[in-house]
Amino acid sequence: MLLPPQALPPPQAPLIAIVGATVIDGTGAPPMADAVVVIRGRHILTVGRRGAIAVPPEARQVQASGKWLVPGLIDMHVHLDEDISPEAYPLFGVTAVRDVGSRLVTLQKLRARAARGEPLPVMYWMGRNIDEGKPSWWGAVAVGAPREVPALIQNMARQGVDGVKLYVRAGPQITRAVIREAHRLGLSVTAHLERTLPSQAVQAGIDNLEHVATLFLEFAPPPSGKQGFGRHFPTDARADLRSPRAQRLIALLRRHQVAVTPTMAVVTLPVEGERMATRLYRGWAEIPEGWRAFWKTRYWDFLTPKGWTARDYRTARQARARYLQMVRLLHRAGVPLVAGTDTPAPWVLPGAGLLLELEWMTRAGMSPAEALQSATGRAAKVLRKEEQVGTVRPGRLANLVLLDADPLQDIRNLRRIHAVFLQGRLLDRDALRQKFLQAKPPPPGA
Ligand SMILES: [Zn+2]
Q1: How many angstroms separate the alpha carbon of residue 266 from the centre of ligand 1?
Q2: Helix, strand, or coil here: 427?
Q3: How far is the CA of 309 from the centre of ligand 1 (A)?
Q4: Fewer CB atoms near the end CB (10 Å): N or C, the chain?
Q5: The Cα angle at residue 423 between residues 419 and 427, in degrees rounded to 5
Q6: Contact, 198 vs 179, CB < 8 A?
Q7: Class of 72-389 in CATH
Q8: Any idea of the CA torsion for 404, 408, 410, 415, to the nearest 10 degrees?
Q9: Angle, CA 155 vertex, CA 133 and CA 168 arms, to 5°
Q10: Distance from residue 17's CA to the centre of ligand 1 (Å)
Q11: 3-state secondary structure of 78
């Protein structure tokens, strides 16, 4: 394994008891009022009602009456290669992320920083994106033929991936070969599709699909040859979600229980830009100057509405309404949804972006409890890491968020963070915020 483990050093006080909070455990079980959660080292030791479980006398007690305790959140779609301040995830209660396409060296560096004591989230890694022909994007790898696939996947497994991801140039044959080999090695597969239809990937056994917009390929294919950000919006804006093809796809996704990561953030914030971002983050998250400067560099041109007319913006908003409608239909049909953002796409702040994503999920008809599940227990299941993260249960990492208000009343209460525990450590959020505000964009050309 080329990746070092991602353990933080154990906390100074080996035993902590969080006493009196209402626990929402991430499994979908009803909240438990007046609970006690005992942490030992990096893990949760016990969870129970006050009086029903023993509180070790030597435990440091954290009084939490009148507060709510939820599992640390999981962002299922981030890109650490481009992220200039990953410490911001835990600042906003996101204690684990799934990287969907970065280089090994990035993960090695970040895990080494965590091992030295930096409070970085638990980082799962889907390896480099898999393309066909030639790599479409910086960090992607490409294969020429299905027979090259087993060696590639075996190599990724040796590097320590937690799953693999198919990318935009992978056609149906490569898709089938990747899924076959990954499953043989016990790895899950997700995809950002463009050359393979969602139904083909589902028939081949895929586990997860990224970006609700890619589902529209099935029933609203964009004109070929068009390039650039937003090329899908004109056809998606007019897509008929009641058409037989759309209905068949939804039924297929449900039957195979393929998870979908909608990523509403990336079809919203990069389009609307600074004005909307400033409004949405006002009062609870600041946008560091370094991030503002970074997002305005040419690096991000591929994801921003350069040269758009008022009509292009209207079209994008119509398409977005269709995506939200699709999320609603998927949810109603019983397709498992998980929360991911595509951080750090323009104006999608690490951590804070996920809290906005969850709000969009509730706007698509999910209850706050269901939205919370999509970033905790269900996300962990799709990651196949439910023994490590995603729930407040004995044996799991002590990744916990203590809130001043009930997130089941209003999902926006996830912004009202009182404290964050990361692998058993109570974080100094003021220090994290200071560090976040000093985020520096990489030098041009780096
Ligand atoms: Zn992405």
Answers
A1: 9
A2: coil
A3: 26
A4: C
A5: 35
A6: no
A7: alpha beta
A8: 40
A9: 30
A10: 38
A11: strand
Closest CA to 293 of 173, 438, 120: 438
Cα of 114 from ligand 1 centre, angstroms: 23
Tell me which residues have their CB within 5 A of the ion that is ligand 1. Answer: 342
Question: What is the SS3 assignment for 204?
Answer: coil
Place of tokens 């929402």: 24
Q: What is the pLDDT along the chain (446 residues), one digit of tens a residue?
A: 678 777 787 777 789 999 999 999 999 999 999 999 999 999 999 999 999 998 999 999 999 999 999 999 999 999 999 999 999 999 999 999 999 999 999 999 999 999 999 999 999 999 999 999 999 877 899 999 999 999 999 999 999 999 999 999 999 999 999 999 999 999 999 999 999 999 999 999 999 999 999 999 999 988 776 677 888 999 999 999 999 999 999 999 999 999 999 999 999 999 999 999 999 999 999 999 999 999 999 999 999 999 999 999 999 999 999 999 999 999 999 999 999 999 999 999 999 999 999 999 999 999 999 999 999 999 999 999 999 999 999 999 999 999 999 999 999 999 999 999 999 999 999 999 999 999 998 876 55
Q: Compute the distance between CA of residue 248 and CA of residue 244 in angstroms, rounded to an integer.
A: 6
For the record, the structure tokens of 322 come out as 């269709």
Ligand 1 midpoint to CA 76 (Å): 10
Supply 379's token pair.
């996300």
CB 59 within 8 A of CB 38: yes
CA 78 to centroid of ligand 1, rounded, Å: 6
Taking the centre of ligand 1 as the mean of its atom positions, its distance from the CA of residue 248, in whole angstroms, is 26
Q: How far apart are CA 324 and CA 215, in angstroms?
A: 12
